[in-house]
């Protein structure tokens, strides 16, 4: 095995770059920002309000205005509560997205139910939440929403409320027409959902493939440089080593009977042969010998991350709230090492004198808290933590390159490992930033 093959084997063990087989198993790619859904909801609130007012004021059609206003107000109130409870960067998990989209679907169905049911020309809009779900959620969470949409569409066919129409006239559709509209909405919903899922699936797989390709090309570039360095070293050292070996043999033959020099000459010859063996092993490295390095205790992993940042004049204190005898043994994960290193580097950059790392672990979870004694996060930055290309932690501090793409990448890598991150400022009279990272213990140990 050449040095290129050995390094490639280790790299693939440390970081799997192959595209996942199951598109639905990727939690990060199936999450979308809450702010996106909130904006779509405000668009729905505005559209429903304009439509109801136009029917009531411009067309003068009688309709249950109070009930319609209640339903639209419920959607607006839910939007306001979501905006107040969660930051704009919050990403919805599949279950939370299913709950919110189900609420949107039921609100839309209720509004259509009291305004004519399937006879309402806006009834096809009931498929919008389903399309959003299939474009952004796993199938096991999108299919229940599709079934709910089919049930709501069926219920609309039996709406007892008439379609708002001219006073004194009642517009009722024949059963055949209702069945036709029901079939059209159901077929459109199913087709649009399948189409959205396929397009989203292919786009994500393509993005993963491109990212994996870039990573492979970058690794190959470094491995090629390593190949050249090893070949150059073997070539440059081979000639003088051969000369030393020949001279050592001649000296051993000539001074073999001299007790004063024989031991030194034998040592010189044995060491030259050892150097030759080392050069031979350099071109045939085996990745099997590094298998024991793939697992390490939590304390060792933390120390490995901290070590490069101890030379910058900032004290790094490690507080362990747990017995090392029961600490988890983790798989060496390149994403975790990079992510933690980036967060600690950022804390060191903004700290005045000290950075404190607190480690806790029990049977269920592992918690790491990173605190510094700097100026902390300003309120406007704190609400946008996790977004790329933020320029700085606050308006007064501009050193260390800010909280930009590096923090975004670190947060994403740690979340891929199963971690949950919380950013805030230290409580009490002591200023400074505080980052809390929590993993399920089983996920951290199993990698």
UniProtKB/TrEMBL annotation:
Annotated GO MF terms: ATP binding; phosphorelay sensor kinase activity
Bilayer topology annotation: Multi-pass membrane protein
Pfam annotation, one family: HisKA
Enzyme Commission numbers on file: 2.7.13.3
GO cellular component terms, A-Z: plasma membrane
Residues annotated as transmembrane: 40-59, 65-86, 98-122, 142-163, 175-197
Domain Histidine kinase: 232-443
Keywords: ATP-binding, Cell membrane, Kinase, Membrane, Nucleotide-binding, Phosphoprotein, Transferase, Transmembrane, Transmembrane helix
Coiled-coil region(s): none
Catalyses which reaction(s): ATP + protein L-histidine = ADP + protein N-phospho-L-histidine
The name this protein goes by in its record: histidine kinase
Species of provenance: Pseudorhizobium banfieldiae
């Amino acid at each position: 095995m050449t040095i290129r093959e050995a390094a490639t084997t280790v790299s693939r063990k440390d970081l799997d770059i192959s595209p996942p087989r199951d598109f639905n198993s990727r939690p990060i790619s199936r999450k979308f920002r809450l702010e996106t859904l909130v904006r779509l909801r405000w668009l729905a609130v505005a559209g429903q309000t304009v439509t109801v007012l136009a029917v009531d004021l411009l067309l003068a059609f009688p309709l249950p205005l109070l009930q319609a206003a209640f339903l639209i107000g419920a959607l607006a109130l839910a939007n306001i509560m979501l905006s107040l409870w969660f930051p704009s960067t919050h990403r919805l998990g599949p279950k939370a997205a299913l709950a919110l989209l189900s609420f949107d679907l039921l609100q839309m169905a209720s509004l259509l139910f009291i305004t004519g049911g399937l006879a309402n020309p806006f009834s096809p809009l009931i498929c919008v939440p389903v399309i959003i779900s299939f474009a952004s959620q796993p199938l096991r969470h999108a299919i229940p929403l599709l079934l709910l949409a089919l049930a709501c569409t069926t219920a609309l066919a039996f709406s007892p409320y008439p379609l708002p129409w001219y006073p004194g006239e009642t517009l009722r559709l024949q059963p055949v027409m209702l069945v036709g509209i029901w079939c059209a909405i159901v077929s459109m919903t199913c087709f649009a959902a399948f189409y959205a899922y396929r397009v989203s699936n292919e786009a994500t797989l393509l993005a993963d493939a491109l990212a994996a390709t870039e990573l492979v090309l970058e690794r190959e570039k470094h491995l090629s440089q390593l190949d050249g360095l090893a070949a150059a070293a073997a070539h440059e050292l081979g000639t003088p080593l051969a000369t030393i070996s020949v001279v050592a043999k001649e000296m051993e033959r000539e001074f073999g009977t001299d007790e004063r020099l024989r031991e030194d000459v034998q040592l010189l010859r044995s060491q030259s042969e050892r150097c030759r063996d080392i050069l031979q092993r350099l071109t045939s490295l085996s990745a099997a010998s590094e298998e024991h390095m793939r697992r390490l205790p939590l304390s060792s992993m933390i120390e490995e991350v901290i070590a490069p940042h101890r030379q910058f004049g900032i004290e790094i204190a490690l507080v362990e709230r747990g017995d090392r005898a029961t600490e988890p043994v983790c798989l060496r994960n390149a994403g975790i090492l990079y992510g933690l290193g980036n967060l600690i580097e950022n804390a060191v950059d903004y700290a005045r004198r000290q950075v404190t790392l607190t480690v806790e672990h029990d049977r269920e979870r592992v918690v790491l808290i990173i605190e510094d004694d700097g100026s902390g996060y300003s309120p406007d930055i704190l609400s946008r933590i996790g977004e790329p290309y933020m320029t700085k932690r606050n308006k007064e501090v501009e050193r260390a390159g800010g909280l930009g793409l590096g923090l975004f990448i670190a947060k994403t890598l740690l979340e891929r490992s199963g971690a949950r991150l919380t950013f805030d400022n230290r409580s009490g009279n002591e200023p400074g930033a505080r980052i809390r990272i929590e993993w399920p213990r089983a996920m951290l140990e199993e990698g």
